[in-house]
Amino acid sequence: MTDSAHSPGPNATTPPDWAAFARAGEWRRALAAARVTGAPPELTEALEAVLSVQEGVRARRSPQVRRALGRLEEALGALVARGLGGERALLDTLVSPRGLEGALACLEGLGRGTGGETETEALRERLAPALAHPLTRAEALNALGVLHALREEPGEARACFEEAQAADPGHYRALTNLGNLDLEAGRAAQAEARYREVLRLNPDFDGAHHNLGVALRRQGRVHESVGSIRRAQRLGVRRSQEDTREEMREGFRRDARLRTVRVVLLVLAVLVLFLVVRGAVG
Length: 282
Hints:
It comes from Deinococcus aetherius. 77% of the residues lie in helices and 0% in strands.
C-alpha cells in the first residue's frame, strides 16, 4: 500500500483519475483527485475513510481505525443507494472490508511488536492476514522487524523495515526504525537523514524528534539536540493526552453503562449549577 510522491500521475491535459491512484494504493491522491473532479460526496466519504484507516494503522491508533472502518462500511452502502455500484465494486476489490477486519484483528494487542511471540515464524503466522492485506502489510512487516531487532538480528530487521517501506512509503514508523538501526550501528549522520525524512512525512511524530536529538548529540551538535528532545517531550505529552481522550470516548461509545453514567453526571452538574445560581440570586 503506497502513498508515494514519485508514482506517475496523469498528464496536464487529462483530469486526474481517482481510480488509477486507488489501484496504485495512493489513497491521499485518490481522494484529492475525486474532490478536484467533483465526485459524489458518497465516494469522497469512502475515500476519506480508507485514508483514515491507513493513517490510523501507520500511527498505531486502534480507535481511529475502528471508527474509520465503520465510516467506510456506511459509505460503501451509500454508494449502492446512489447507484454507484461500479465504484462500490472497485473499492470492495481494492480494500476488501471483510479481509481488512481480520487483518486489523490480528494486529490488536501487538504492543511494541511481539504480542507475546518470541519466535519470528510464530509471529509471522499470527500476522498472516495482515501481511496479505495491502492496508496492513507494512505494519505487519514493521512488527516482524521489531521482533528481529529485539532478538539482536539487525540484518533481518533491516530487511523487514525496508520491505515495509516498499509496501507503504508513508509508513513513517518503519522508516524511523531504519534510522534506529543506523544509530545503533554508529552511523549517526545516516540516522539523522532518516529521521528528517520521517519528520517530512509526519512533523508531529515525537519519536522521530527524540531520536533525531540523540543522533545530533552523537555528532556533537548539543544545542540542536536539546531543541529536538524538548520538542519531542512536548509532542509526547500532547499525544498521550489525545490518546487518553480517544480511549475514553471509545469506551463511552462501546459501553452503554458508561454512556448512562456520563448522562447522569451531566444532569447532576446542571442541577448543581442551577442550585448555585438560585442561591446566589436569593
